[in-house]
Amino acid sequence: MFNLIYNQLDFSHKLDGHTLPSNDFKKHMHDFYELLFFIRGKAEYVVDSETKQLVPCDIVLIPPGSLHFGTANTECSYERFVLKFPTSILPKKIIEEIKTIPYFAGNYPFLMEYFDELEKIYQNYDLEHSAILMTGVLIRIIIDIRIHFQNHSSPEIHQNEVVAQIIKYINEHINQNISLNNLSKELHFSRSYISTEFSKVMKVPVMTYIRYKKIIAASQKIALGNVKINDIAEEFGFNEYSTFYRNYIKIIGHPPYLKSK
To answer: What is the pTM (predicted TM-score) of this model?
Structure first.
């Protein structure tokens, strides 16, 4: 088991015993990628509108801005590798390729050798060298998944069609003001049905989900530089900068700022 945190990398090998998993397993959304390699246990994972019962050697790839959470059976141990990383550490070609990989990318026993290598690196190198070497292993993992990933429409993956429609609309109109009235009018469902169905599946209110998506999309645009933060706040529908600022700190963890080049 290990947990390497260096700059923006957070790579770990985790094992939860016959207790509830840590708070990291609860529903959340973030502005970086997360790759989970499932080792053992009984766990069901949800990413946006898709759900899968995990089996050993399953890969789950969670892009920035995707709500995800799991349900683990506490009667058995739950073991997995979790790699959290920003796209800024990846070569341009890999950034483009990773966008084509589905949430539930497939089952890959042969990837175990890569994760064993991460364990060996952690044990044999200092922190800085470990981060450099682990980044190289991560890139190899992404390349191999991209080459081999299975059909996205696997019968083992279940999707709530109503929630999928809601999320698709939100993603396509993230720069616009989105209300329950908009969703009801465009998707031809009642406001109450949208609210109930979305909360039942995603475990959060739909308007909370929209706010998180907007802030994360704004943070990614801010990270590109050459923008005015006030303009970004307005672009994503925050008429009051104080509201944007307060939500940004709550969701991202720090105030919005432009990175120096």
So the answer is: 0.86
